[in-house]
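Same chain as my last thread, 487 residues:
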Amino acid sequence: MLSTLPENCAMTLYVNLAELLGTRIEQGFYRPGDRLPSVRALSVEHGVSLSTVQQAYRVLEDSGLAQPKPKSGYFVPVGRELPALPVVGRPAQRPVDISQWEQVLELIRSVPREDTVQLGRGMPDLDSPTLKPLLRSLAQISRRQDMRGLSYDNIHGNFGLREQVARLLLDSGCQLGPNDLVITTGCHEALSTSIRSICEPGDIVAVDSPSFHGAMQTLKGLGMKALEIPTDPITGISLDALELALEQWPIKAIQLTPNCNNPLGYIMPESRKRALLTLAQRFDVAIIEDDVYGELAYTYPRPRTIKSFDEDGRVLLCSSFSKTLAPGLRIGWVAPGRYLERVLHMKYISTGSTAPQPQLAIADFLKNGHFEPHLRRMRSQYQRNRDLMIDWISRYFPAGTRASRPQGSFMLWVELPEGFDALRLNRALQDQGVQIAVGSIFSASGKYRNCLRMNYAAKPTPLIEEAVRKVGAAAITLLAQNESSID
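reply #2:
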């Protein structure tokens, strides 16, 4: 129960309460036009302060799920008809060899083209004016005569950047120093070196399901097996299913994205993060935490990481600037805890030190205070875009379509009726200048074939709306063909 959490969890209490009320609204417990419980009634029911309830309602108001009326309280907005949430997946209850490389390759080999609207790739918006100071820093570094940007760097990474990242991590609850961090070539290398530091070929890694295709393809390339754990679109990985898996199988590590999850978009409640860490301690397994989208949470302060509760160094925290700034910089980091020496060795035998020039530019960008204003702008833009994208899904997609409710980032998970084939949909759309990410690449065994992931980072334009309409229209056509073939 929310009321049993300790006092120092007050920040999370309002988030949990907002999630509870939001779930009830989205599942139809409160209908459009209904009056929501009063601030005082919720305070008594959940044993929290009035200000906690008011904060929760502000979160719901920002999400468009609650509307205040003077002297009357809060109401569910009239006319707001949201798609139902995706169902919890039912992955295989055993470790499996990972497939889907061909579909992943099809997605990642695509390059930006003027005649294609790219809804599939995990690209942030690169057109924001708040990125201009970063471009200036890159230009200035390239003009320096001391050649610092062209020489080998420390295997740990630039100290100035590590210092700035350590300060940045304070917002996630982590008390780390520069020497606790290793700069990597993007978050992908952070994940890869972490996995190789812990696991060997044939080992089993538990993953959330659906899960980031890049991490799973790393497991595939290293000869490891994935055990997919059912994952709720609001609260995250099932702890009961994970506990059962840990009891049954010799799992070496747990790999997941608890904050602004890719592709479902949820933020795992803090109490569940603590419970997950307790499970890992009980079974003595490592946790590889992907926090690449954590800074893009729509609520402030940003959610805490699992790493922030880690006292014995078993959590390897991985992140990068690929989603907050630009993927072409290829700058990430890992806080590997007790596995620091192994991570350094894995990095040395793969890429060696990371390119210095983008490290210097990002360090300068952070040091001069440009990062937080940029984040504020992006969070606000992505939240508005999310609401618009969900509205377009409701308007243009087939009846019965389900969609996630991202609490951060810029990815939407869309679920079409059972039996639908998103691979056929993607092929049909390519002739129309639109690309999506098919759902099967987010499963080790190719599940979620009736799902797709869509990017809503870019500022909305008639061209993007038309692309979404094309996706919906093609889906309706394919569903009609399926029904006629059955008849």
